What does this fold into?
Amino acid sequence: MKLFQQLLVAPAALGLMSPVAVSAADLNLNDISEYSNSGDQIQSISNFSDLYPTDWSFQALTRLAKNHSCAVSIPSSAITRYEAAALLNRCLENIAQLNSEERRLVDEFAPELALIKGRLNGIENGVGEFEAGAFSSTTKMSGFAFFTGGAVDGATSDKTHLEYAYGIDINTSFTGEDVLYTGIETGNANGTLGLDSSTTGSSNALAVNSLFYTFPVSDFVVTAGPLVDQDDVVAATTTLYPETFKLSGFPYSLAGSETGPGLAVSYGNDNGFVASVSHVSADGNLPGSGIGTEKGDDVTSATIGYNSDNWGVGLAYAAGDESDATAGYTAVGVGAYWAPEGYPTLSLSYDTKDPETGNDEEDIFFGLGYEWGPGTINAAVSNIADQLGYDDRMEYELSYTYPINDFMTITPGIFYQEQNKGTDDQTGYVIETSFTF
It folds into this structure.
């Protein structure tokens, strides 16, 4: 839950997607007039030819919206370039760093993005893609809130619960191409419902959970900071399943359970190939541990992947070393997705973990998403097993994400989890309301 967005819609995009932060007062009409008299330069803006689901840019926008859980309604038919630019602008507020495909989208719609933002002079003066589409030299703050209610039959406490999660995301750019990201979160989840929003914590106290700086170097993007999650920098697209309810793929190689001083590098090109590598020291701030020591809890991760027009595949690897407090492990996972036009989006992954102590673990995950009515149906099944097969168990979930408007979404759902022998299986009934601002 990072980098939620500013909201305000351009009239041409109303009813399709969230808006961008620009008002009539911000639009310099003299600049528009001068720009419109500049001959060929206006052609790229005035050419509002439709984008069709078979076009590369349409499919790339769809992947971007799903991969970053943008609170937008993904179209299923032709849209104008202006509508596509408004969707892109909304989603860019969710992204700490861009991969090659996302950079290509920014370049493709730079004129429309500049028009939406009321910064036409930025294009003529060669302002970079972040200035045109996402980031400027100012600081931007956005946030989110989740109200999660429900009960779990079979749990220790099967009573009805209502919990919350709250977060503030602050992005500061100094050059127009870099970003200093600060994530501040809190919550009061007790672990019974266990939805993705519960990862904000249970302390009821605001805390800085993420703090890192990202900047480009040629075709690479470098991320470094004192608070980096193990899964903050993942170049490969391993799944299109939103993973915002209960289940998710890659519970081992992309668990994100280590947070601390970290350094990461990601790479992407126009051919669809991407890669990333990172190193995080979970207790690198402690005087008795430090970074990269035998006593420290360090994890090294890497991903590589390929994205085509409507399918992709990704491989993830993580190796945590043994420390005084934790056991070492090696985790490897592979995932693929398929997004055919007019059909459900399918995601499949296999993830395995080999700890230095205890039995091996593996997870097979399958998820699908289908646009139905104004919202999206999401369903997933996961099979978890250890080396001896004693812990082989199934987990299922079904939810429906219904957008009330551009700022509110309601998601009712149900999940079922088989438990270890001697423990009752659990069935959960949950409804979650999310707010973005």
Summary: The chain has two domains: 11-133, 226-436.
